[in-house]
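Field guide to reading this record: the first block holds the primary sequence, the second block holds the structure written as discrete tokens, and the final block holds curator observations. Each block starts with its own label. This record concerns Anaerobic dehydrogenases, typically selenocysteine-containing, catalogued under organism Mesobacillus selenatarsenatis.

BLOCK 1 — SEQUENCE
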Amino acid sequence: MMTLNKTFKWFDCNRREFLVGTAALGTSLLLGDSLKPKADSLRVGEEVTIPTCCHMCGGGTGVIATVRDGVVSKLEPNVDNPIGVCNTSTGYYENSKYGAAMCPRGLSAIMSLYDPDRIKKPMLRTNPKKGISIDPEWQEISWEEALEIIQDKLKKLLDENRPEALITFSENSLFTDVQRDFCHLFGTPNVSFHTNICSVTRKSAAKSVLGVEEPLGDYQHCKFMLLFGWNPLSAVKWAHLPQIILNGKQNGSKLVVIDPRFSETAAKADKWLPILPGTDGALALALAHVIVKENLHNERFINDWTEGFKEYKEFLTDKTPEWAEKICGIPSDEIQILAREFASNQPAIADVWVGPGQQSNGFNASRAIFLLNVLVGNVDQPGGMMLTEEFKLGNSPIQTSQSKTKRFDGLENFPFGHRSGVYVEAIRHLYHQSGPYPLEVAFFTMSNPVLSLPNSNIVVDALKKLNFIVVIDNYISETALLADLVLPGTIYMERSGLVTRGTNWKYVALRQPVVEPLFGQLPEVDIFIELANRLELKDIQGKVAFKDISYEDYMDYRLQKSDAGITLAELKSFSGAVWRSNEETQFEKYKLRNNKFHFSISTLDLGNVDKFPVFRQRKWMPDSNYPFYLISWKHISHTHSRTQNNPYLSELKNQNFLYINPETAKSLSFNDGDRIRVNSPYGRVTATLRITPGIHPKVLGTEWGFGHKGFGKYAKDKGFSVNHLNGLLSDEITGQALHKEICVNIEKL
Ligand SMILES: Nc1nc2c(c(=O)[nH]1)N[C@H]1C(S)=C(S)[C@@H](COP(=O)(O)OP(=O)(O)OC[C@H]3O[C@@H](n4cnc5c(=O)[nH]c(N)nc54)[C@H](O)[C@@H]3O)O[C@H]1N2
Ligand SMILES: Nc1nc2c(c(=O)[nH]1)N[C@H]1C(S)=C(S)[C@@H](COP(=O)(O)OP(=O)(O)OC[C@H]3O[C@@H](n4cnc5c(=O)[nH]c(N)nc54)[C@H](O)[C@@H]3O)O[C@H]1N2
Ligand SMILES: [Mo]
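BLOCK 2 — STRUCTURE
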């Protein structure tokens, strides 16, 4: 196991003493020793090991925390949890003998837990003037005072009979269940979470073609991987991903990566094809054209299980490699070779994530890419694109009814919109005051839209129009800088939750607190439960809904009614606090559906969308004023805008750069390390230039998440925020925020 042992000082946040401890930091993804914790926890002297689930990103990788004298001293992978091992049951049993994986962000989480820059007390703004460079002039207040203030604000909305003036935003796995219940009980339809600024194009496209929202390839057992704008070796969502892709390669699979830049995944590929941003749809259609024209498709599968093929074939007639070359910049002969290789190396998987997904045409591009799997019939079989069936938790124990009022963000206007809402449109309506009614109070939990949404200037101005903003965060984020009241959040090691997703067979894992909240904070869920009780919010039977229900009861209820049918106590007692189904990964599940399930090539249930995955150019194209595409991506050492104050991660990477191709740099007489200004129609930032052949000559790019004005001493004023340059764009079909669609120019400072 490759680890770097560091000695550092624990800042004990309960103001006891400084303690000296050690922690293991992974310098890359690593395989931990096989861990077989006994039921619940194991005591060795004063040391306790407790299984839980990471939440440094949404992936929820299994973790074993060692707690020494009440201080978390070590985090290691939990081999009982499939997320760090493999996404199929066969692969899980094959791989688990070698241990499980965590990523650098997960391994550094202790430093986030004990970060002295964390917010410790509720903070009330005293300066009514708002802006991210304006001092809010915080006043520390007690939890009781803070809850009373919020209660008053919410009570006023109830008294005035306009509960819809409340909107909530949160991360997409943290307590969305209770947040939704709270909003329903309160009477507002405006419950939203971050999926629509994340990967709704992929989810919606997958649903429309394959019938499931989150298909996941059996990479370990395939023979060809074709990845469009997905960098799983660095943007590690589930810690098994780098492992199964590299194991697949070791088993003889080819890997081809389509990306405007030489990503970490491209670095492991047999071929990297640099593409012009936003043109993946054209490439995928041309690949389909060649496959169909040369009769390389799987006719039997298509006849038995799909509809619309004949018309699709016609639609593809003019989507030739030569047509696509002009659009995407990849030579037509390369396209032909790729199509033949893909079709003849079965099982072959084509997959896509947010590279194309966060640009116009992302929905149709993703559809065209998923359809490649359908054309070769590689769906839901070993080595195929799997029809992932999610583990189902039981319904909430709280009986609510959904508000009949129209949503503020106009979600209903998006034919493939997602229940998480449309952040971009909520901001637009707020900014222009064009919503169906005024909004007054907003909650942001584990969300930093001022940095994470396109066009930060507009986001700031929009948020300034709200009457009262509550932010629940561990830092004074840029969004918190605009808040009226900030409540200290918890780090996952201080709270509970149930985690499932990211595998092709069913499992559920327990996130359990390994230490008490360090500053006596209420965990995020409990804030909402407490407010519901203070406001005496009633369920449909007229009973105060959360009166006798703790979050533990709530989880217990949902677990008992889940696919696992177990109690919370049982889950806690299982090895690694994980329940895994005895039923192994099921293949060809569509065959069990009595021929009723078709893969949809043409027809879509909802009107208003193109019958076939047409290609349309992006709204933002280079012109003489803004000649370069600008894209952004995730760095392995950071999660979005949330980890930049972690000292270990900041040591690995503490700022972003603007990457440029040597040809382009030469033509503009720029040198490596030059300080430059980047201008877009919406904003300007200062950046440091890095010259690399690993980026398309017409494209500039950067890691996103940097450029903090708030946060703490490690994060503040390091690098630049790319979202200051982006335009406030959402995809017309899904409502997805388009973070990778802008053009810029650059000048020397
Ligand atoms: N380390 C780390 N891992 C993470 C996260 C994190 O913040 N940090 N976040 C998690 C989340 S929420 C998500 S949604 C996933 C996302 O995972 P990914 O989809 O891999 O995310 P990105 O890095 O944004 O984009 C992937 C690639 O798309 C490329 N790209 C940009 N534009 C285009 C284009 O037009 N066409 C093509 N073909 N490629 C393009 C970028 O250069 C980048 O290499 O990652 C998850 N994992
Ligand atoms: N330009 C550009 N923009 C992008 C992307 C991109 O690739 N390029 N990627 C997009 C994607 S895929 C996504 S998913 C979104 C993510 O965007 P967001 O969902 O807004 O996530 P973050 O930016 O990480 O902000 C999370 C906030 O939560 C706080 N936080 C972290 N952990 C906790 C916790 O445990 N409890 C509490 N209460 N608070 C916590 C952090 O301090 C931070 O302020 O960004 C999107 N924005
Ligand atoms: Mo995301």
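BLOCK 3 — OBSERVATIONS
Residues 1-44 have pLDDT under 50 and may be disordered.
The longest helix spans residues 143-159.
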